[in-house]
Amino acid sequence: MLAFFLLVGALGLGGAGYLLASRPPTFHGTTYDEVTPAPPFSLVDHTGRSVTLDDYRGKVVLLFYGFTHCPDVCPMTLSKLSRVTEGLGRKADDVQVLLVTVDPERDTPEVLGEYVRRFGPRVSGLTGDSASLARAYEGYGVYTMTAGHHGMTHSSAVYGIDRAGRLVVVIPPEATEEAARDDVRALLSL
């Protein structure tokens, strides 16, 4: 009789494990009701190479819009994303952080290259001509506005794109490092 209860218990735990494993991951950030391909872009990275979003297929992409002369939000966000990826261990190699400039007049590829090096090897800076950048902003609903002398106001969310190139989650600027890391882990599990 004991063997019967042990067998039923083991089957129950196995079934529960299957149900838990087959559930979609949960996110702290805002998810989309319908997961669709992330809006494409064609820009230039900090090495001068032309890139598209498809070039990062197979990696989780954390897409952020900012600028190198930003005094607070941009360096804090990129520092947080660097710590998030470092905390992933070996899985960090499957994550790419992309900074798309909102200040292309000052953020040349060379300036972006110097800036992103501060945040580690998984961060790349992107720029482009005004038409290419406008498409990259519009696709994600990003706003930018000049604010005072050499200042910028811009969207500060991080867009989480899965390995298949689908826009899955928006990580808000106030997300803790732990919440952001959980969301990246969830993206990696897709």
Question: Segments where pLDDT lies below 50 for 5+ residues?
Answer: 4-11, 15-20
Class computed from helices, strands and strand pairing? alpha+beta
Q: What is the rounded distance between the termini?
A: 42 Å
The domain count comes to 1
Query: Main sheet?
Result: 8 strands, mixed
Radius of gyration: 20 Å
| H-E string | HEEEEHEHEHEEEEH
Total strands: the figure is: 10
Helix content: 25-40%
Average pLDDT metric: 89
Question: How does the overall form come out from the CA principal axes?
Answer: globular
| CATH homology group | Glutaredoxin
By DSSP (H or I, 4+ residues per run), the number of helices equals 5
Q: Please state the oligomeric state of the protein chains shown.
A: single chain
> How much of the residues is beta strand, in percent?
25-35%
Under the CATH scheme, the architecture is 3-Layer(aba) Sandwich
Biggest sheet strand order reads: 1-10-9-4-5-6-2-3
CATH topology: Glutaredoxin
| CATH hierarchy class name | Alpha Beta
